[in-house]
Amino acid sequence: MTVIPLNRRPPATHHPSGGLRAQIAGLVGRLAAWNDARATRKLLSRLSDRELDDIGLNRAEIDRIARRAPSDRRAAM
Question: Least crowded by CB within 10 Å, which of 2, 15, 23, 24?
Answer without folding.
Answer: 2
